[in-house]
Design goal:
Number of helices: 1
Strand order of the largest sheet: 2-3-6-7-8-9-10
Number of strands: 10
Structural class: mainly beta
Shape: elongated
Distance between the termini: 52 Å
Helix content: under 10%
Largest sheet: 7 strands, antiparallel
């Protein structure tokens, strides 16, 4: 078997089937559950929560359990507020977001479970002719603990997303049924 690549025997583009150390590997990834809910209090304020469960304790490679993996779990929540008026340099309709999350990772380090936690802030803004959105987020957090694991990793993430030319249609409640189609 292998990857079906066309090799030239000179190391340039050779397929994995040309490598005597290559073999197919069967990996059974864990069953996972992700669930979330949100509630919009009014047209401006939304609150959301999520949970995550992953059965990494059942992780197998070639039908054999892999030691050192535990089930992982996590959760988080956040709030989003859309400002009806201009907010300083931000135009009307700017959406501000804040959230927090925590989770345990499936690996142990120093004999202890590794926990990750983070705080996120961001904003969203309609741009152009109103059919595009710009979303920016900043997240700061850490993995591990010097006291628990003997190792600690702080991290920061900057996220920038642009959705373009979205067409959202809202039906007016008083619009006759025949016109809705």
């Amino acid at each position: 078997e292998g990857n079906g690549g066309e090799g030239d025997g000179e190391g340039g583009g050779g397929g994995a089937s040309d490598d005597p150390d290559f073999r197919d590997v069967s990996v059974d990834l864990p069953e996972t559950f992700h669930g979330g809910a949100s509630y919009r209090f009014d047209t401006r304020l939304t609150v959301g929560v999520e949970v995550e469960l992953a059965r990494w304790g059942d992780f197998e490679v070639d039908g054999r359990s892999v030691a050192g993996y535990d089930d992982a779990s996590g959760g988080g929540g956040g709030v989003e507020y859309s400002f009806p008026k201009r907010l300083g340099p931000l135009p009307e309709g700017t959406v501000l977001r804040a959230g927090a999350r925590t989770r345990t990772l499936p690996q142990r380090f120093g004999g202890e479970r590794v926990r990750e936690s983070a705080l996120t802030v961001g904003f969203g803004q309609i741009v152009g002719i109103g059919a595009s959105n710009l979303d920016v987020s900043f997240e700061a957090g850490k993995r591990g603990s010097l006291g628990d694991n003997g190792i600690e990793e702080p991290f920061v993430r900057l996220g920038i997303g642009l959705s373009a030319f979205e067409q959202w249609v809202a039906i007016a409640p008083d619009q006759p049924e025949a016109e809705r189609e």
